[in-house]
Amino acid sequence: MFARTPEKSLVTVRAALFAAWIVLIVSLFWDPMTPTLTDPSATGSPFHVHGNGPSIQGHAPAAQNTYAMGARIWWTMIVPIIPLFLMVFGHETWRRVCPLSFASQIPRYLGWVRKASFVQRHSGKVIKTVAVIGRGKWLDRNALYVQMGLLYLGLTARLLFANADRHALAFLLLLVIAAAVTVGALWGGRTWCHYVCPINVVQKIYTEPRGLLESAPHVSGARLGQSACRISSPSGDQLACVGCTTSCSDIDLEGSYWDTVKRPIKRHVYYIFYGLICGFYGYYYLYAGNWDYYFSGYWTHETNQLSQFLDSGFFIAHRSIPIPKLIAAPLTLATCGASSLALGTVLEGLYRGVRHRMRRIPEAEIVNHCLSFTAFLSINTFYLFGGRPSLLMLPAPIARIIDVAIVILSSLWFFTAIHRTPFKYRQEALAASLLGQLKKLKVDVSRYMDGRSIDDLQPDEVYVLSKVLPAYTREQKVIAYKRILDEMISQQKTTSAAGLQVLHDLRGEMGISTEEHARLIDELGHDHAMELDPSVVSARERAQSVANYARLIASAICKRIELGDTFDTAFAHAEFQDMIRMLRPSLQIEDEEHKAALTHVRAASGALEMRVTALNEQLMILASAKLAVFSNEAIVRLSNPLVSALRVVLSARTVAVLRAMLSLLRAVGPTDITHGAASTCARLFTDTFVDVMMEPAGEQLALTWKDALDASLINAIVGVLSDDETHAEPLPAAATSIPTLVRCLHSLANDGEPLHCAIAAFALAKLDRNEALNWRQELLAERSDLAQQWLVAEVMETISRGMQAGPEQVAGRAPIVITVQGPQAGITRAAQPGSAPQPRHDTCYTFDSLSIRIGSDRDNDLYLPEVGVAPQHFLAHIQGARVVGGPLGGETAWLNGLPIEQEAVIRSGDVITLTPDLPPVCTLIFVVPAYDLPYTEVHLNTVTKLSALFASGGQFRRNARSLEAAGDIARRATVRRYPRNTVFTPETLQANESYILATGSLRQIAAHREYAAIEEASHDEASHSAGTLASDNKPAPTEMRDDASDAQDIVSAPARMDFEDMGDDAMKRYLVVSAYADLVVWQEAGGGQDAVAAK
């Protein structure tokens, strides 16, 4: 209302009110005038004493004497006016006329404000500024609690001694003024008003989100908003803000309200305040035993109030309760405040539930409705008592008119408040900017708005621009947006997410691109104006921060519990505590919000129970998938080797989920959800679940899960296990279908374990390639870390190019491959990085040349700038059908740990070390150049090799650990395709290599009869075999002379090639390729154990 009134005028008003207040305080010590108004003989005065006082605690009424009216004027005339004044005229008017605010500014007027020093980062200068309360400090976060506490103490002081004792009241008021002056001297701005003054709580409750006559700076765009700090100057009022608080209510009350509306502290003080009103006025009745004591006003001039501290504080049902008044008064206020807080919290929860069942509205609007209703209830309850001793002296019709006016005004405020929303606030702010630019562009809106002028447009008609501006050029739209942008930047409205959202909405309406927006910022010279200021936090940002914090700590605790920790152990874990210490300051999380987040984790329907439900659903899918993978259709479409590997993946995942489930059941305890989950585990995975229950309970090695779970959960599990019908109950047929398996594989393909992920994704692609392609896109978008793992990346590539593509065949000699070990990976000029498999932490280089030179000089093929490495240190080269290598220039090198000074034969997989102080620096891997090898190398994907290895048996048992070992070998193994009639003897299989038949088949033959015939047939069909191998078609078998009595069983893939498994006369038998054979070959431990085979 007074937002535009000059500061010079209102300083005078504040000073006058402050002077009047001082006069009133002086009158409490010496008052020669008002006693004449209460004299029994002054019958013309409505305040004259007549008759006896009211009965107090059953005692006979005492005679009344003449008294000074200072306390009565203060408590029953001045104080009761303030709440209605706040609600009607608003926050801005009160702040600009408040005499106590004037008192806090006296040090500023006298130049006594304390300065604080800080070092300017970019210049190193020491800057002195007005001291303010630090952002995020305890007082900054708990100011409303502090003010509510001071209000509680003030009300207690009234009931005990300040109501009637004029000297006590005077000292109390002087103490408040002295506190305001002291705070004003120690901290600048309106620190007293924002952080200490108890009236600020009352002011917020009765004015937010806005008073009836409050101005709207977000609409008017005023340079000095509402009651913003300002100083007078010859050119007019100037802003004098020192940044004493964030989201300042003096600049924009409603904006500040929406920024803080969802903070628990705000709701708490609203609900407690209503209880204090009821407790304060109710105590008069509890103390005296009747209402006459209060409504007569006798309590304003009792003569013996200071002597009543230890008298009985309660008189209830005509009986005195032996509790001293010194205890009874604060106890009553505290009890009523706590009860009101509890009742308000419950009713808020009920209202939220009703709104959720009806039309859903944002959380901010729900809270606003609750707070506005509380304020409406508070002010009307207050005016049932406040000022009533003086109102009852007025004629009855006038008193009724005042009562009706209070109800009407408070009702108008209430309906205005509940219809305010954050969206409407933002919409009005955007409309104000648009309408201002429409005026500058001289846009004629009358033809679009039914003849109304531009001044007739309402703020909620924000989207009128979309109807008006199409008639104007694009240049005019850009000019309008540029002016709005400049205006918002100059008013510092672009440093918060809410301000940036306003501009984003405006660009969408005006068709301004992001590039044009950036260009306009450059033209305006505001390079950093659009950067978010961390200190400017909107309500939406605040809510998002709290929600993110709750989600992060819930996820962290659930993760620790699923690993076997109890809730307390998970909470006390060093990693979790470090995360808390990092997150709370960065997200500005208060103690109450932190406690609420932790409570929600363990509460019903909280994070732990939600996780139990999620794992329960996973177990249902896993159970269905384990049945579906045994179906004939799955075996036909996936192949036996892949099904074998997939079963192990499903089993491993099942065990991991069951362990996590047991740990969660221990943490949550017995609830309906945990009982259901325990029953599901026992019913679907009986044997596995029983085995897991006998494992140690996390880190408590002496305790099994069976001992750690609650007794009621154990009973539920035992009940399921003992029920044969429930135990044997099968899943419905639909649950074991291929579509169910596809859904499970999609879920498993997102597992964090790369090996499981790769196998599941590969199987998914064989069953439903479109679903696999969808998974690939999801993984690239959401799990880039997993997508970059080598095996997962290979499967993704296989899926993208189609699962039907045949193996790539390699002709001619294979190149030499160097693997550089450790962090000292070198730089090469001639190599092509990444052209061969790359082990983790290693760098793989492929060379097509006949020689490789290694040293610290940059001219080498492999550049290793390490201490002790000579400029030209080592040379390896091809010599006939072998590779030799050795140190150069008298240097020494180490080959597989043994020093060499001359050339030596190097075998594939040998490790080269150049200096004794360094770890092994490189591994040479190569295939000797040859054009008469009896096989052709083919590139099969790693999952196919892995499945073949795993399904072949032998050293690969069907368990998760063996699967991991098979994965490591499959990565470095090569695949050789042999044509039909190729003969394998014990002598042709190298001792340091292992062989697995991946595809194709072999026959066992008697060595003494068949070998010559096979050799002759192979020679005749050599050309045919060579031509067939060059295509994707597999060579067909030919008729051969065979003696049925000597022929043995066919060896089908997958199988190990081991002559020791062929019986006692194994040395007399050979293996012959029936049609074709793809062999997976890898080197056993020793020498080339860690080699990576060239493909």
TrEMBL record:
Region Disordered, residue ranges: 1018-1048
Source taxon at top rank: Bacteria
InterPro entries in the cross-refs: 4Fe4S_Fe-S-bd, FHA_dom, SMAD_FHA_dom_sf
CDD domains in UniProt: FHA
Keywords tagged on the record: Membrane, Transmembrane, Transmembrane helix
Listed transmembrane segments: 12-30, 73-90, 143-161, 167-187, 269-287, 327-354, 366-386
Any Pfam family: Fer4_5
Domain named FHA: residues: 852-914
Domain named 4Fe-4S ferredoxin-type: residues: 172-207
Protein name: FHA domain-containing protein
